[in-house]
Amino acid sequence: MNALMCHAFGPISRLRLESAPDPVPGPGQVVVRVRACSLNFPDALIVQGLYQVKPALPFSPGAEFAGVVEIVGEGVRHPRVGDAVVAFAGHGGLAERCVVDAVRLLPLPAGMDFAQGAAFLLTYGTALHALRGVAGVREGQTLLVLGAAGGVGLAAVEVGKALGARVLAAASSAARLELAQRHGADAGIDYSTQDLRRRVLELTDGRGADVVLDPVGGSYAESALRATAWRGSYLVVGFAAGEIPRLPLNLVLLQERRVLGVYWGEALQRDPQAHLRDVEQLVTWFSEGRLRPPVTERVGLDGALDALQRMAARQVMGKVVVEV
Ligand SMILES: NC(=O)c1ccc[n+]([C@@H]2O[C@H](COP(=O)([O-])OP(=O)(O)OC[C@H]3O[C@@H](n4cnc5c(N)ncnc54)[C@H](OP(=O)(O)O)[C@@H]3O)[C@@H](O)[C@H]2O)c1
Prior knowledge:
By secondary structure, the chain is α/β, with parallel strands linked by helices. It has helices at residues 41-47, 114-118, 121-134, 151-162, 174-182, 196-203, 220-226, 250-254, 264-270, 272-287, 304-312, and strands at residues 2-5, 16-19, 29-38, 64-72, 84-88, 97-101, 105-107, 142-145, 166-171, 187-190, 209-214, 228-236, 258-261, 295-300, 319-323. Helix 3 (121-134) crosses helix 4 (151-162). It is globular. NADP nicotinamide-adenine-dinucleotide phosphate is lined by residues 40-42, 122, 126, 147, 149-153, 171-172, 176, 215-216, 237-242, 262-265, 311, 314.
């Protein structure tokens, strides 16, 4: 089969599209014929050896994908050969076939095509876990989302609206803010030209945002924490800007703010029941038209390397989907 392979942790440019052996399922595993694999920022980190999980070499990146079950291993009752599924496998999706534990698969939700299915679980799962599970967002609260035109950011905009929040989107260009507003954001802040804290205070009558979801970090983190309301929550989701920020704790003390970590991949293993409840909620919202996976670009497997490089260089919006 064809696969985009990583033979050594290092620059993304070293990935190679090449012929790799077809995978064979072990007990409890299935082989999925991949139809679509979306790109997530962790895919770019994992091949560089910068992610908390380091797969055995060589491997294909591609954490989440959708496809059709081709072979089932010993002891697998669900799914069956021919079933359309979505998977969060961690890696392996940028290939024609991927072997994955059956428990990591879900049926492709009704009304969802393979591209949307590949762009669903990770970002919306992270957003709902962060906003409902970790921060307990309530109707009427104000939510500030950084990187609001990125994968996790756009999902957080839609999930925030579905939870009844007023959503302020922050991003680095007018085009990005327009995309976030098309996905439901109530107002936009261009943090490349505007003072983030000042704009949030202006938009909230001086109160600040009740909840801040930050997948970007870097130099925006301190302004975002300063824009968090009295007893508000600042969610640490990721560091797409590259730099892991250090925050002065007096900012936490003075406003009784809460700084909360979010680690979806670990949380779903520790509490699979909560994860299933989240997935059911997300599928319901999708069927009601409240979630619209933002597939902004489709490329083939031969375009995946270039797209991963553009994602790492802040040059994509929404979700890039690799159709295999
Ligand atoms: N904690 C968890 O459970 C969890 C789960 C999934 C993902 N994550 C993390 O969340 C972050 C976002 O992931 P994603 O898949 O949503 O990524 P993405 O689609 O690439 O979005 C990231 C956003 O970050 C902003 N950004 C600022 N500086 C950047 C830079 N130097 N390079 C790239 N982007 C930059 C960009 O928006 P602007 O240009 O508008 O600033 C971009 O849209 C990543 O750090 C990822 O590892 C965490």
